[in-house]
Amino acid sequence: MALAVQPYTNEMDDHDPLHRPVCRLLQAHQAEMASVHMRDLFVAEPERFERFSLQVGDILLDYSKNRITDESMHLLMQLAEEAEVPGWRERMFSGDKINHTENRAVLHVALRNRSNDPVVVDGEDVMPKVNAVIERMGAFAERVRSGQWRGYTGERITDVVNIGIGGSDLGPQMVVQALRPYRHPRLKLHFISNVDGAHVKETLESLNPETTLFIVSSKTFTTQETMTNAHYARDWFMAQSQAVKHVAKHFVAVSTNRDAVTQFGIDPDNMFEFWDWVGGRYSLWSAIGLSIVLAVGAERFSELLEGAHEMDNHFRHAPLAQNMPVILAMLGVWYNNFFGAESQAILPYDHYLRSLPAYLEQADMESNGKSVDREGHVVDYATGAIVWGATGINGQHAFYQMLHQGTKMIPADFIVSIEPPTELEGHHDILMANFLAQTEALMRGRTREETQLESGAVQVGQFIQHKVFDGNHPSNAILLQKLTPHALGMLVALYEHKIFVQGVIWNLNSYDQWGVELGKQLANRILPELHADVPVGSHDASTNALINHYRRMSHPRAGL
Ligand code: F6P
Known about the structure:
six-stranded mixed sheet
């Protein structure tokens, strides 16, 4: 298999972590490991589980079903050390502006800093204002949850609609879904993100303006999709309430942009603030989590933050070789850069975690889907993997065929909770048995001889090869004791730090997202052209033709 790492030469830039001498060692080691089967490693090393697993708080990580030996882990940790993961980690925690292209600190860890130790940005300890917003969120949520906060006709709030997109949607939506067993019995949470009118219309269809509370969530408060949906929701509300003064009881905002919030017509007293050092995809811990607090209450939200803080402490202080996010990250680097794997599957065996893959798609791919390093050089090595997935049990009946017998290497994270969310123990045992069976099957496979033995004499023939499983497919098993707010906080922070470590290894700025800008700009240019009186000719032939086709076909009676 082609390696993504170039041979080392002395002229190569010191800042280029994948051209370090340790990478030559890793390359040579990969060449040895390429033909080693995990089945044989398990026979030779019966204590593999003890050696390659660790428990941190609520989370057990078994990484023994990976194509690794002690030497692999030793070399990978050496790479992490040489790429200065510990130094970068400290810079992040202490508020350095490591998001250098936007001149911003990266401090989602401060949002869940339950120790309250000062975190200083531009000479100011941010902890007092972090805590003040958390308190305001809790107090507001309590008023809504208790029924004290009433709508303009005096009715209690029954439905909360979060309008936001990307990080202002995926995080809170995933957490509210994951913590459904802890939800408030009266309040129903809804999330509108898509600018396709069907999303907002369909959601509002069943709602009553008198009992609906909108949270307009947008870091910038300029995002086209969010603002379009927010204006529609306001018009929908005004059509019934008829008075601007009622907006204050039904619209609150979460943003860093006070002016834009005021301009939209939301009372700044109803605005929950966060700061530019919170990245959108890392913002569920901030006021962006207001829908979470409304759904599960301030105490549960606090447990979520505590879980994340526990993982932060582990990540900050544990030695690299016993550091869960570092281990996950370096295994990803091993497959991505030395085995040529292109993707990473996320497979929760948990109905309530069904949105985790979508959440991690943004978290990971918007962070590390980059081809220019921190110094602006175009990289010649693979960076962020394609992250994808679905609930594992459904995937088994859909795409697992490829995991087992396809030609691509697809490292997979299997996630499950030991305690079921319902009393249906029998269901949970089936789920668990499948979880275990899949990781075993991926690792072990089934040889031709075993297949022949199992199939019996009738089956011995030309189709036998179709029933052979090569195995040797890597996976991690991540077991939570129970999907509590605390455990979920730990899990999400685990992935955040994994992404951070990989960004350091690849010498990327994981905290900007310039790659989303061009499409936004072009969309703004194209928008008025869709209704132009004359044929559009300023783009390439394909785009022109499509715009003109749309003009003709969407307004056939206008004779365009
Ligand atoms: O376009 C990408 C993006 O900027 C994401 O990074 C962000 O999470 C999302 O849009 C929403 O942005 P905002 O919260 O400013 O509306």
